[in-house]
Records
---
Amino acid sequence: MMSSPFPRSILQVAPRVVLSLLLAACSRGPGGTGASDVRLPPAGPPGDPAIPARVAPVFPAGWRLPAGQPATFAPQVMAVSNSPEASAAATEIMRAGGNAVDAAVALGFALAVTWPEAGNIGGGGYSVVRLADGRVAAIDYREIAPLAATRDMYLDANGKLTDKSVYGHLASGVPGAVAGLSALLERYGTMPLSRVMQPAIRLAREGFVVDTALAGSIARARGMVTRFQRSTPYFPNGQPLAAGARLVQPDLARTLEAIAQYGAAGFYKGWVADSLVAEMRRGEGIITHEDLLRYTPVWRAPIRTNFREYTLLSMPPSSSGGVTTAESLNILEQYPALPAYGSTRWFHLVGSAYQRAFIDRNAKLADPAFVPVPLAQLTSKTYARQLQGTISETRATPTRELEPRMQALPREPEHTTHYSVVDAQGNAVATTTTLNNSWGSGVWVRGAGFMLNDEMDDFAAQPGTPNMFGLVQGEQNAIQPGKRMLSAMSPTIVLDRDNQVLLVVGAAGGPTIITGTSQVILNVIQHRMTLMDAMRAPRIHHQALPDSLTFEAGGIAPPVLDSLRSMGHAMRQLRALVNVNAIMRVKGGWEGVPEPRRSGGAVGY
Ligand code: GLY
């Protein structure tokens, strides 16, 4: 058992049945979609020191995403998201003269129309910006607990945790997306909101054709959404829209027009706010006009860390993403030479680093406006050296003794969405946004036409008890009015040794966001993979509790799997891990890769 760095309380808590086992997975199905302007990268001469030669990886025989596939290439601009239409909204704005920030805001609003399971105006998120002139910024538009929220609001009369932090009106935090995107545009964009929102308004008013992926997602969400409102644009008369149908969202179009006309006030005041509050009153919701009026996004300094000669800019608390990524990579950096990708030692060291970083994440991180967060310690190389010293070369370190049921969390994380945008000047935006669960709380705001989040479940609704993701978190992340719930979202920009943008990356998938994003980064900068190979490489995940090393089916060679088991790792297999969307600078331009395990679009020119 490892010793001192971690408080025992976080290692000694009792699990509960994970509520989300009840929820059908809501992904859009396999198959990333490269969209228009697809070209192969030019075969430039080798030798640009800033862009090292790429090395072909070896994946296990039979791995379903073989290496060596080309990415979408564009010489000037690139946008990658889980929705081809939303990525195209970004390039439409850049073709019209907008910068990457204008384009990212356009993409964000368009996603609320075309990727309604996670793109949103009823949720929240984070953006990290790196401008071509070297300025960096991060904006936190995470939801906050309503003023009427209380620490034990999700416990029943017997003190047992209910599912009300996941489903229904009470599950929602005060949405931050509209305030955040508007503030981002105002500070770093060049176009008015009314211009950048045009693609989103058009997509909502005129509609777009539902593809098989969206149709599948809608079908899986049927019980969850129709339970609160029988007829919505996704379920006319309670029936799911089929592939090939046109999804037209007139109520959402009117809401977007109000925001385009009045800015964030068009959402937080007036008839849209009235609709949201009226919806709350239909259920057991507690968000009031006062909550909406008080919502404010927060500008923060990005977490800046380095891995070898590369610099990472990522999201500070209220997200745990940047700190936990920095801590994990700092631990790995202590090894002068890291093992080959796919080896027993590679998975052991990476999993052990994540395990240690997540113990800190789950115990020490929360909204910095409410609790002191030891940022300097957790991101320091000295501390990483101390943690690295607790990793045995020959055996896994148990996080704690597990209850048997915790060993078998048979679910894939299917939540949230990330998008990356770069422009011809070299400005870059990484944004991750979410409703938490796919389709959020299941509640659709009548009259205003958007889904509401179930972000309250990201608090420790009962400290010490696992949340929807099986995360066991402490008292520091307990519910308090006005507090932001701890997130794992990790929008990240990586700079090369010449301080040029190399990667713009982030992911969806609850806590696997951190491990998935950082493995793509490691694959590119440690293993020198191409971006496409880095995205297709099999992934692992460790979040301390449950104390298991999760891997993708077929992604670890059988002898390696045997070795990891014999070292004491409880190996847990899932079909797929994490939904990453990324852009990488290459010679002559940019490569964009939407998640090959899901659907999406890389669009550039
Ligand atoms: N709702 C998932 C996260 O913020 O980590």
Note: Residues 415-416, 434, 436, 458, 487-489, 510 surround glycine (CB under 6 Å).
---
Amino acid sequence: MKKILMLFTICSSLIFYAQKKYVVVIHGGAGTILKNEMSPELEQQYRDKLKEALTSAYQKIKQGKNSLEAVEAAIVVMEDSPLFNAGKGAVFTSDGRNELDASIMYGKDKSAGAVAGITVVKNPIKAALAVMQKSEHVMMIGKGAEQFAKKEGLEIVNTKYFWTEKRWNALQKVKKAELKTNQPNAMNNLHYPSNYWVDRKFGTVGCVALDKDGNISAGTSTGGMTNKKYGRVGDSPIIGAGTYADKNVGISGTGWGEFYIRTSAARTVAAKYEYQNKDVKTATEEVMLEIEKLGGDGGMIALDKNGNVAMTFNTEGMYRGTVTEDGEINIEIYK
Ligand code: ASP
């Protein structure tokens, strides 16, 4: 009898474990995030902010709101924090500006919105959402996107709002490394000393959420890569590269954008899921492997219609976190 009871307890806890349903997953960027280089205070700041982002998204889901609102809520928290490379705290372009990119997609009807190269809109994710909901287009860039955001009543800030010392210093460091190379403008790591890439891509933010109606949304927001040139746009605002959502799965990526564009990273995860019956973990791992083989790095998060989650990366760390249906929050940073 005792044995049967024990077996029952083990089985039911296994069933409980297997049924754990995730409703929100976020990332705050992937990169060389090493525990021995992080002070306990800074680590706590990251954990607190990730928790705040997850909580605000979870509140929306709990209230029965649309997953788009949850994604927007989580990303706004991270855009407003100087800790992440999105909104305030964005990295600098080679000419010392902050050019922001963001995108959002709703899985149910595959509607999507994106902005690129904007400099004065406080929350780029709101601009992406406005493009999706209030225009006939999917993507707007630069001055036109800003004009549209103003018209839609979004908060506009002085460009100085985005300036942070940490990112400014990162630009100076990268520029110094660049001087040591004889191929200053080549976007090819083979021509650069390895430290050139340090600090270039950290802290892009993203979120995927699943609402009570079973609809998935995904969004991503970034300042791009430090020292980016000539109006460079990465994967984050490109639907299918940095962000994707359909009725099955939502994905947000972070990393060396050129490789995510070349592999149609986010869309490929969804295609593997739909056409090859791969689960989110396998699908993201396979895409990350392809990115790695081409020479890129980074990570991605994915969430499917059944509440299965993946947080895959090939860097030293990725700021990341999840919330389950019952409100349990989990945050991780390192490998
Ligand atoms: N993917 C972003 C870009 O290439 C950067 C990042 O995720 O850190 O613009």
Note: Residues 29, 85, 201, 204, 222, 224-225, 234-236, 242, 254-257, 298 surround aspartic acid (CB under 6 Å).
